Structure formats: C-alpha cells, structure tokens
Amino acid sequence: MRATVHVYLKPGVLDVQGKAVEQALHGLGWGGVSGVRVGRTIEFDLAATDATAAQAEVQAMCDKLLANTVIESYRVEVA
Amino acid sequence: MKAAVIVFPGSNCDRDCKVAIERSTGAHVDMVWHGDTALPEGVDLIVLPGGFSYGDYLRCGAMAALSPIMTEVKAAAERGVATVGICNGFQVLCEARMLPGALLRNERLKYVCKAVDLDVVNAQTRFTAGYAGRRQVAMTVGNGEGNFFADAETLDRLEGEGQVVFRYLDNPNGSARGIAGIVNAKGNVLGLMPHPDRAFEADLGSADGAVLFQSALASA
C-alpha cells in the first residue's frame, strides 16, 4: 500500500512561509490569493495490506515522528 | 563536578560547550555520542549543544529527540539532573516533550546572528541564581528557527509559574511574549535560544554565559 501524509501548521500558528509566498503571488498580480499555507507531503510504501490497520500505523508514525502535534496537524491517505 | 555534552550528527557547538564549561567551572566534561545508551556515571550537568542535528531534516531537533541517548537524558532529567539545551538543543528538548512549546521559523524568515540583551525574568532558578539579582545579561543568538511558540494557555502557565527564565529586550525572531528561555515545571531542565557557550569570557564580548554554567553546577 502507498501512504501519503500531508503535514501543515495548525490554523492558529502563524505560517511565515505561507505569508511570504502569498505576498509574492500578490506581487505577480494575483491579488485574489489569500490564506496561503505551506506544508509538506511525505509518501511511502507500506507492507500492510489492510487499509484500516495501515491507517492506524501511519497515524502512530505521525504522532511519534512525522508531525509535531504541538504546532502541526496532519492528514493521512492510504491507498 | 562532571558534565556531559551530547554530540548529535550535525551538532556544531559541542566543542564550544565543552570549552565553555571547562573554562568557566573547571568541571570535567565528557562528550557523549548520540548513539550511546549510557551517560557517564555521576554526571551533574547535561548539555544539548547548538548546531543542525540530522541536518535539521523534517523539523529541527525531531530526529535527535529520538536518538538512543535521549532515553537516558530523559531518565537523568527525571532524577533531577540539571539539563540545558542551547539553540538546537532547546529545539531537541521541545521535540522530546521535555519542555513545552516549539520553535518556529523566524518571523521574518531570516537567520538571525547577533548580540542580544536578555532580561533575567527569574533569577531564582538553579541556572540563574549566580546572576544574584542582576536583571540584564548579554549573549548572542544564531538561529533561523528560534521563534518560540506555545498556545496562550501554556504561555500563561509558563509566566505564572516562573518558568520564563529569559526574555529578549529586543525580540529578534518573533518569539511569543519575547521568550528566549524557559525551564520545566520541576526547574531542572532549561532550554534557551541564546548561546551562553559563546559568552563565557570578556574577550568574547560577554562573560555572562559562564555564570549560567557555574550556577547549574553549583546547584548539583
């Protein structure tokens, strides 16, 4: 199975990178852009064959290493 | 007196810390590799140095926080051993959940390298007792992700419980409430972004960092 993890700063945490990107887009003429958030995507293969078990496994990986839940939230996709 | 400096792959202030502790306290300093599973017997002070452990990959300090030696560092801290994380070491302590909060990218996305004046908010800790009531000390910072963050409730608790130890007089990186250094609830684990290891004798511009190491060992 292939796992995809999306990690973003939580809504209340100032994303300075997102803000800089937003300003750059405004500078290029895309004035309608707002709420830019920059995150990271982590993809990997999993030996597991059961989607529910895989989901739980990846969630444990997120809590332990892939995300810092003090500042980040994550979304897991397993397919 | 005995101190241990933890060396992670990518640490670059480990030798600075060793020299700073030796010259300011005369203590014996052991360098301990991150892959080790034991600390030297009878260690009085553990220092997690600055640098770019594991290349700052994923998040600063994230991988270092899971190093084998960190199990021992946590156990020693729970026994009450004085533990200091400087710069990347502070990030490691937060990632290891030994201190609350996290260090974010600096507000202006710039690496900040400069001398800073600090308000000694709590001079009653075992790390600051030697300042003897002095309210202002000088050190330097060098960080790209030194912007301390915690939720409002945690910040209130840190302030209310005297866990905010140092505050920037002129906030260089956007840190919440100008916080430069905090201690845990028990008072034996200190994390700070400024470098006492770069301010241990007058020739370096300030000797105020020496007092921090002296206090930490005097309290052991």
Structure at a glance:
Chain A has 79 residues and is α+β, with helices and mostly antiparallel strands. Helix content of chain A is 35%, strand content 27%.
Structural class of chain A: alpha+beta
> How many helical elements of chain A?
2
Radius of gyration of chain A, Cα only, in angstroms?
Answer: 16 Å
Instruction: Specify Rg of chain B, calculated over alpha carbons.
Output: 15 Å
Order of helices and strands of chain B: EHEEHEHEEEEHEEEH
- Helices and strands of chain A, in order, run as EHEHE
Shape of chain A: elongated
Strand content of chain A: 25-35%
Number of strands of chain A: 3
Largest interface: A-B, 13 and 21 residues
Question: How much strand content do the residues of chain B show?
Answer: 25-35%
- In CATH, the topology of chain B is named Rossmann fold
CATH fold assignment of chain A: Mth169, Chain: A
